[in-house]
Amino acid sequence: MDVPRLTRRDFTAALGGIVLSFSLVPKVVFGQDPARLPGSLQTNRTLDAWLRINADGSVTVFTGKVELGQGIVTALAQIAAEELEVPLGRVTMISGDTGRTPNEGQTAGSQSIEQSGTALRMAGAEVRALLIDLAAKKLGAAADTLKVTDGVIHAPDGRKVGYGELTAEADLKREATAKVPPKPAAQHKIVGKSAPRIDIPAKMTGGAAFVQDLRLPGMVHGRVVRPPRYGARLDSFDEARVKAMPGVIAVVRDGSFLGVVARREEQAINARLVLIEFAKWSGGSELPDPAKMYEQLMSLRSEDRVIGEKDAPVPVGAKVLEATYHRPYQAHAAIAPSCAVAELKDGKLTVWTHSQGVFPLRATIARALGLQPRDIRCIHAEGPGCYGHNGADDAAFDAAMLARAVNGRPVRLQWMRDDEFKWEPYGAAMTMKVKGAVAGGRVVGWTFDVWSQSHNMRPGDPDGINLMGSWYLADAKRPGPARHAAQPNGAGDRNAITLYDFPRQRTTHHLIMENPVRTSALRTLGAYANVFAIESFMDELAAAAGIDPVAFRLAHIKDERERAVIEAVAKAAAWKPGEKGDGRRGRGIGYARYKTVAAYIAVIAEVEVNRTAGIVKVPRIWTSADAGQIINPDGLTNQIEGGVIQSMSWTVHEHVRFDRNGILSEDWMNYPILTMPDVPKVETVLINRPNERALGAGEAAPGPTAAAIANAFAAATGRRIRELPLTPERVKAALA
Amino acid sequence: MAISLKVNGATRSVDAEPDTPLLYVLRNDLELNGAKYGCGLTQCGACTVLVNGAASRSCVTPVGSIEGNEVTTLEGLGTLDKPHPLQKAFIDEQAAQCGYCASGMIMAAADLLNRNPQPQEADVRAALADNLCRCGTHNRIIRAVLRAARQNGRI
Ligand code: FES
Ligand code: FES
C-alpha cells in the first residue's frame, strides 16, 4: 500500500496550492508509539480530520470513502448525526478529496461502515462530550446534568447553548482518544432507521450528480484511441488529417498512447473515428484459446499456498466425490463508460474522477507522470455504479494526459462504450477443484483448490504502475505483479476456506502470476466463484448422503448466527425438507459468511427451465442476511437485492467473449446482461443485531445467489452444470 | 449552423452541425443533465428523452432531424420542489443505487403512462425491457412506476 505520508515539509509546501482543511500533525507526543485507535481513526487520528462544527450549528463531515451508488455517504451521515445529536439535515458530507478528506485507501470490500463508520462514531461521541464540557463551563453546570437535543445543549434550569456558539472554543485539532463510549443502540434515533438517500433527489430531477455532469469554464472534450489488441504498438497514424478536422485542438501521441482534444464533444468523437481508421498497429499479445481456456490458465506459472488445513483421518468406507467448477472472465460493465475531467494549471493538476481510491490514484498518477503528489489533487465525483476496479482510474490518467496537452483548459475525457468493454480489467476466470468424503451423513474429508489470476491490480501497488494508459507511453510503465492477499480477506481465495465444521480440510490457492487477459477487482473478488463451488459441492455431498440440503448444511454448522440466517431463509421460502424438482421447476439454497468475517447471508432461488430452448429463468429469490447492527435497513436491502440481481445476471448470462486476436465483447450485444422482463422478485429478511458490530454486506449476496441458482437447476432437472454461466448451449448439453 | 429546438417548452437556438446527436446538444449546449450517455448505440436507454411525447434515443437522433418537434427531458417533467409523479415515486421508492439509469427509466416510463395510464407489472417490465440497469435496482423501478401510475403520473 502506498499511503502518501505527508511530512511537515510537504504540509507547508502544500499550503501554497491545495488548502488542507485538517491538521496533519496532531497533538501527539512524538517518539511514543501511538495508541491503537478503532477503524480509520488509526490512520487519520485527529478529530478535525473527520468533523467540523460550523458557527451556524451545522456539521461538516469528512470521509475518505466515496459514494458508488451503495448509499455509503448517507449511512455515514446517519452515524455522525446520531453521535453528535444533530438532525441529519444539518450534516454536510465531504468525501474522497485528496485536498480535504482523510485518506482511507479504497472504497472497497464492503469495509466502509467498519472503517469510516467506526471512526465517525468514535469521533462523534468524543466531539459531543467535548462540546458538553465546554457548555458546562459556560453555563456553570455539571456536565452530567446537561442534555443535548438537535445540536443544542440544555441545562436543567432551562438555560441552553447551541453547538454553533461553542465552535470558537472547541479545539478539534487534537488526537482522538476513542475513550468516550458511543451511544448504546437502544438510544439510537437515526441509526437503524431507513433514512432517504441524500443523493437521490438530484439524480431524479436532472441535478448535476455525476462526474459526467461537470461543466467547467472553457472545458473541452477528449477521446482516446486504444490498440486493436493488448500490447500492440502504434506504428503510424494520420495526424494531419485529424488536425484539419473541425474543432480539433490537439492530437496527443506518446508512444502508443493516442488521444484527441476538440472544442465540442461530437467533434472529438468524429476525430477519434478518423484516428482509428488510419492508425496502423503491430504486435501485441495472443489471448488464450477460449475453447481450452481453463486448461491453459492452469498451466501458467502459479504461486501456490496452502491457506487452510485441519487434519483428521478419513474413515474407511467413506464415499468420495470430486468435481471441478469454472467461472469465466466477467465484466464490471458499468452502465456508462468511464469518464474524468482534468485540468493542469500553473503546474498543478486537478482530476475529477469516479475512482474508488483518490489517494492511491494520486500517488500512482504522480509516479506515472513524474510529478509530486502535492502537485496533484484528485477529487471524487460520482460515476455510474462500478462494482469494483473498472476503467475509472485509467480514464483519470487518460484525462491527465490530454490536459497536459492543452495547458490551462479543463478536458472532459469520456471513454466510448467499446473502450470500457474491451479495456476494463475483468473479474478473473477461475477453476475450483473440490474433493469431499461423506460417511454417516457427515462430511469427513474436504480438499479445495482454486486457480485464479490476480483480483487486485488497482493503483497503489508499490512496485508497478497500475494505470493502463501508462503501459503504452514511449517511456512505458509496467503493472505491478500478482500478489497473494492475507486471509480472511483474501483475493482469488476469498471465501475459499469453508466455514463448515469439517474434521478435515485442506485449501490451496494457486495464484496465476501471468495476465493473459487483464483482470482486477470485481465485486466479491474470488468469493463469487468459491462460494458457487463450495455450495454446489455441498449439495452434491448432501445428495450422496441422501440428506436434505438445508438440513445437511445445518448439521455442519455450530455458530448460532450462521444457523439463524439459514433457518430464516428456509422459513421465508417455506422450504419443505426433501422437496423435489419436477424436471422443469426446482429450488436450491446457497449460504456464506462473506469473507468469513463479514455479513452472513443465505439465499434460496427458484428456477424454471425451458428444456427445449435451454433457457433458465429465475422467477423468485429469497434471502436472509445478518449484517450485525443495521445502520439503514432500506439501504441494506437495496444493496443485498442489487447483489442478488447482479449475480443472477452473471450466473445465467455473462461471460467476456474473445478469440486469440482480441476481445470481442465490445457492446451490450456481445455482452448481454439481464433485462427487466427476466428480473426475479426478491424477498429479503434482515436480522438486526443492534448490539453487534456493523458488518460489510454490499458484496455478500453474489456467491450464495450463484450457488442457489445452480443448485435449483440441479434440483429441477437432476443434472448439474459446473461451468458458469448457465447458457442455453450448456443447459441443452446437460439435459441431452 | 444555427438550429432551433423546442426543449421542455422553450425555444432554444443552438450552433451545431445538423448530424450532431441530440444527446450532446442537450448536455453540452443546453446544459441539461437528464439525458445520459451510456452506449451511443441505442442499446441501453440511458439517453432516452421524449420527442413529441414518444420515447426516443437521443444518442442517435440527429439534432437537425427534429427541428420544430417538442423535446422533453427529465428536467422538463418536474423539479426538486415540484417533482412529476414519476420523479416523486422514484424518490419515494428510493429507486436507485447509482441512479445513472434513472433518467432513461423515468422517460421510458413517462412514455408508457401516456399510452397506458394503468399498466400492470408485466406492462412495465415490457416497456422498460430495453432500458438497462446494471445495479440491480429493477424491482424498485417497477414499484416506482406502478406507484406513479396509481397517482395518475401522466404528463
Ligand atoms: S446512450 Fe443511447 S441508448 Fe445507450
Ligand atoms: S441504478 Fe445504477 S444502473 Fe440503475
List keywords for this structure.
heterodimer, A: 736 residues, alpha+beta, Aldehyde Oxidoreductase, domain 4, 3 domains, seven-stranded mixed β-sheet, five-stranded mixed β-sheet, 16 helices, globular, disordered N terminus, B: 155 residues, Ubiquitin-like (UB roll), DNA polymerase, domain 1, 5 strands, 35% helix, 15% strand, binds FE2/S2 (inorganic) cluster
Order of helices and strands of chain B: EEHEEEHHHHH
Biggest sheet of chain B, open or closed, and with what strands and sense?
Answer: 5 strands, mixed
Anisotropy-based shape of chain A:
globular
Portion in helices of chain A: 25-40%
Give the strand order of the largest sheet of chain B, numbering strands 1, 2, ... along the chain. 2-1-5-3-4
CATH topology of the largest domain in chain B: Ubiquitin-like (UB roll)
**Tally of domains of chain B:** 2
CATH fold-level topology of the largest domain in chain A:
Aldehyde Oxidoreductase, domain 4
